[in-house]
Write a structure and sequence with these properties.
globular, seven-stranded mixed sheet, 11 helices, alpha/beta, Rossmann fold, about 40% helix
């Protein structure tokens, strides 16, 4: 686990995922009356952890990169949430050694499945770390979104390989080990034997199709775009061509 590639990063906090996580955090608060416990695996730089801590969650971040964890510490300090974030230097393949089983209300595995050797084992580990009734949020690179990106930017040979390669790779020099379609992601979650799929949607569906809001009226333009993006991402046919796919699974 390290720094994300440009394709993984994109707009790393898309509207569809934010809405799903906000809803899950509110569900936990209503059910328990306490601050949600979050485990963020591979999120060392704090892209998700710092805002979640700012919303009152207690967040443990597991990452192998010392540099990423240093960035996390700086961001947490700037946001005034250091006391709600626990950084852990560890690897996803040894998650049980650094994170208790059945311990988290919400487990994040964002930008993981496309780079690990065994995504099924990793997802099983994320599920085991979630408390019964808790949620696992997976965000990964979508095959068909990558295809659309290559076509619209004139890289047709890469687009062809994305469709024909079993793992959705563009060739041996591809920085990612795989890309998923929605059905593959669903089957991977079900195969853990621990997760029921509640949400499977696109994220950032409009990124390749709609230019960002201009400097005038930027905030209202962004809000309108986010609203439309979340609506489009929830439509299966549109979500499949998003640059990222998001799955929210419920621990049995």
């Amino acid at each position: 686990m390290g720094s994300p590639t440009r394709e993984q990063a994109g707009a790393a906090r898309g509207a569809a995922v934010l809405r799903a996580l906000d809803s899950e955090i509110e569900r936990v608060r209503r059910a328990t009356g306490s601050a949600p416990v979050v485990l963020d695996v591979g999120g060392g730089s704090g892209t998700w952890a710092v805002p979640l801590a700012g919303a009152g969650c207690r967040v443990t971040v597991v990452d192998t990169s010392h540099d990423a964890l240093a960035t996390l510490a700086r961001r947490a300090d700037e946001a005034g949430v250091t006391d709600r974030i626990s950084p852990v230097n560890g690897d996803v393949d040894a998650l049980a050694d650094v994170a208790p089983a059945d311990g988290a209300d919400l487990v994040l595995g964002h930008g993981l499945l496309e780079v690990v050797d065994d995504p099924g084992r990793v997802l099983s580990g994320l599920a085991a770390a979630a408390a019964p009734g808790g949620a696992v949020s997976v965000l990964t690179v979508g095959r068909y979104g990558a295809f659309v990106n290559r076509v619209t930017t004139g890289r047709l040979a890469e687009a062809r390989r994305l469709l024909t390669d079993p793992a959705g790779r563009t060739g041996p020099d591809d920085s990612l080990l795989r890309r998923f379609d929605a059905q593959q992601l669903r089957e991977l979650a079900v195969a853990t034997g621990r997760l029921g799929v509640e949400t499977l949607q696109g994220d950032g569906t409009l990124e390749a199709l709609l230019p960002g809001p201009g400097p005038e009226d930027e905030q209202s333009g962004r809000e309108e775009r986010d609203e439309l993006d979340a609506l489009a991402s929830a439509v299966p046919a549109l979500g499949e061509v998003a640059p990222r796919l998001h799955l929210l699974g419920r621990r049995h």
